[in-house]
């Protein structure tokens, strides 16, 4: 029997770097809020996936209003966000009762494909964990105040989401005390001693972080 598949879509952030009044997850891209594109990608992958949507509690009403406005009826389990991404993921994990696999994904990566989501679940079923990543296209240098040093870029990867794990493994890992070095879920799992398996993500799976990302995402969606 296949494992139950969950997705935690974290959209509990404030979007300070994009400098928009409306939280960036609600900004419209190609006629639909960013977050709805993201949720649709997961439902395109599987209509039976159980989705936990993490939002700031103050934004629940805004979300309900947007669902009405855009006639968005796909079911989600709502959960309140926390002060940090770590806390938001932890709250999302609290909503999972059984075992299975969980894909943790940024609500503001709306260009994730069904293929990437599918690969993350397939690989996590084998390796317990699967993290999307891409190779560097640019050269990379390490800086140390006055000096810089060329590095071998083939040794580095840029890390994306989804980051998919066995539920029990990632729940246990998130029992740790929060640390500023935990920038993603892989770093939390690694701290608990787990080996992190990477797979090929996509250059199109961008995170909407700063204003120019909106222009790029709009262009990619129009392709
Ligand atoms: N307290 C938080 C902070 C972040 N996130 C989510 O984590 C993802 C990646 O975070 P980031 O892009 O940094 O989003 P923000 O924190 O909203 O942006 P900024 O850092 O610019 O304020 C986003 O989908 C964001 O909503 C979250 O669920 N809860
Ligand atoms: C989880 C993440 O998207 C992987 O690239 C990233 O680490 C989030 O970082 P941010 O500082 O919250 O933008």
UniProtKB/TrEMBL annotation:
GO terms (molecular function) for this protein are: 2-C-methyl-D-erythritol 4-phosphate cytidylyltransferase activity
Output the InterPro entries linked to this UniProt entry: IspD (IPR001228), IspD/TarI (IPR034683), IspD/TarI_cytidylyltransf_bact (IPR050088), Nucleotide-diphossugar_trans (IPR029044)
Point out the annotated site residues (description: Transition state stabilizer).
Answer: 17, 24
Q: Keyword Transferase: yes or no?
A: yes
Pathway participation: Isoprenoid biosynthesis; isopentenyl diphosphate biosynthesis via DXP pathway; isopentenyl diphosphate from 1-deoxy-D-xylulose 5-phosphate: step 2/6
Q: Give the enzyme's EC designation.
A: 2.7.7.60
Q: What class of enzyme is it?
A: transferase
Keywords carried by this UniProt record: Isoprene biosynthesis, Nucleotidyltransferase, Transferase
Described by its record, this protein's role is as follows:
Catalyzes the formation of 4-diphosphocytidyl-2-C-methyl-D-erythritol from CTP and 2-C-methyl-D-erythritol 4-phosphate (MEP).
**Protein's UniProt name:** 2-C-methyl-D-erythritol 4-phosphate cytidylyltransferase
- Organism name: Ohtaekwangia kribbensis
Which lineage do the record's taxonomy fields give for this organism?
Bacteria, Pseudomonadati, Bacteroidota, Cytophagia, Cytophagales
- Gene this chain is encoded by: ispD
């Amino acid at each position: 029997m296949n494992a139950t598949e969950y997705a935690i879509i974290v959209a509990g952030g404030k979007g300070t770097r994009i400098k928009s009044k409306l939280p960036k997850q609600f900004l419209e891209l190609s006629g639909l809020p960013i977050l709805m594109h993201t949720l649709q990608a997961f439902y395109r992958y599987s209509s039976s996936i159980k989705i936990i949507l993490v939002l700031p509690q103050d934004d629940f009403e805004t979300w309900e209003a947007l669902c009405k406005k855009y006639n968005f009826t796909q079911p989600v389990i709502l959960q309140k966000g926390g002060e940090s991404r770590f806390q938001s993921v932890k709250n999302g994990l609290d909503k999972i009762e059984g075992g299975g696999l969980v894909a943790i994904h940024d609500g503001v990566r709306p260009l994730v494909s069904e293929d990437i989501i599918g690969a993350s679940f397939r690989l996590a079923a084998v390796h317990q964990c699967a993290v999307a990543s891409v190779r560097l296209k640019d050269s990379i240098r390490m800086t140390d105040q006055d000096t810089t040093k060329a590095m071998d870029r083939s040794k580095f990867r840029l890390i994306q989401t989804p980051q998919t794990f066995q539920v029990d493994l990632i729940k246990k890992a998130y029992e740790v005390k929060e640390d500023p070095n935990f920038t993603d879920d892989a770093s939390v799992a690694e701290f608990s001693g787990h080996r992190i398996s990477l797979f090929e993500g996509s250059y199109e799976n961008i995170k909407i972080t700063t204003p120019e990302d909106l222009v790029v995402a709009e262009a990619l969606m129009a392709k």
